[in-house]
Amino acid sequence: MSRYRGPRTKKIRRLGALPGLTNKTLKLKSSYLDRSMSNKKVSQYRIRLEEKQKLRFHYGLTERQLLKYVRIARKIKGSTGQLLLQLLEMRLDNTIFRLGMVSTIPGARQLVNHRHILINDNIVDIPSYNCEPGDVIAIKNPEKNQSIITKNMNSFQRPKIPNHLVLDSTQFRGLVNKTIDREWIDLKINELLVVEFYSRQV
């Protein structure tokens, strides 16, 4: 299954706020909320599926990529759900988004693909690159690309930077100082349901 490129507000209506997919917010009419909260029975499969879809659309992953991360998390000692979220949060495209350099994860992925990002002074053009403590993320040719980042940083209300990252906004550089803690992951999701959804495939 390919990466989603359709209307983003459609996914927000279905799944709720997805800050990584889009910074838009929707004000739903009370009549719409009444219909969505009707007495229609919701299956356990649907509940797990929607939690999985939240994770997939927020981080901009394909089905195959998400399944790969679940398999990696299961092999590591610890809570599979929390390890899964940590693996996704430490991706390069998400780290750039969390530093506030761009307004969405797709925007961060575009910066990486166009070779504008340096990690420890080396160009990295792989959005799924796993950032590690001690990594320094910088913009290539800051004088040339400063307008891109400045525009992004001023065009939206930036959320608070998580405690595992440090941003130097004057130099357009970020530092990863540790692995992210669960409480700093602002996506409203039950990761255990995602693990349960994939339990038969891993």
UniProtKB/TrEMBL annotation:
| Keywords assigned | Chloroplast, Plastid, Ribonucleoprotein, Ribosomal protein, RNA-binding, rRNA-binding
* Signal peptide residues on this chain, from the entry's feature table: none
Q: Name one GO biological process term.
A: translation
Domain named RNA-binding S4 is located at: 90-148
Q: Which domain of life is it from?
A: Eukaryota
Any Pfam family hit: S4
Provide any one GO MF term from the record.
Answer: rRNA binding
List where in the cell it is found.
Answer: Plastid, Chloroplast
Domain annotation Small ribosomal subunit protein uS4 N-terminal: ranges:
3-89
Question: What GO cellular-component annotations does this UniProt entry give?
Answer: chloroplast; small ribosomal subunit
Recorded family membership: Belongs to the universal ribosomal protein uS4 family.
Q: Quaternary structure per UniProt?
A: Part of the 30S ribosomal subunit. Contacts protein S5. The interaction surface between S4 and S5 is involved in control of translational fidelity.
Q: What does this protein do?
A: With S5 and S12 plays an important role in translational accuracy.
Q: What is this protein called?
A: Small ribosomal subunit protein uS4c
Q: Which organism is it from?
A: Pleurozia subinflata
Taxonomy of the source species: Eukaryota, Viridiplantae, Streptophyta, Embryophyta, Marchantiophyta
